[in-house]
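User: Sequence in, structure out. Go.
Assistant: Echoing your sequence, followed by the structure tokens.
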Amino acid sequence: METAKLALQYLLALLMVAAGLNHFRNPRFYLRIMPPYLPWHGPLVFWSGVAEVLLGVGLVVPQTQRLAAWGLIALFVAVFPANLYMTMNPEKFRKIPLVLLWLRLPLQGVLILWAWWYT
């Protein structure tokens, strides 16, 4: 079980670093999914990308693993409004199947539990 847990820890870290780097590679996508009621879309996209990279790296550093895991939980909660916005406005995201928009919502819970495993 410990081997699986460690492998999944590195997988989550890799996914977070990749997602964070994608904020810089494709910021237009992240800007589009920002709910209109949130201010400072550009800085929020930038800093959430930075956070994803740093927290992903921190998850595999023993000294920062717990703090990074709690940070990821906070991040997953913080980005939930964007997922909800996409689900409630599917006409703005026609390239993404509606079922995937809905699946993103419970996926946040899975990601939170996954990160919590390393707290």
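User: And one key feature?
Assistant: The two ends are 17 Å apart (CA to CA).
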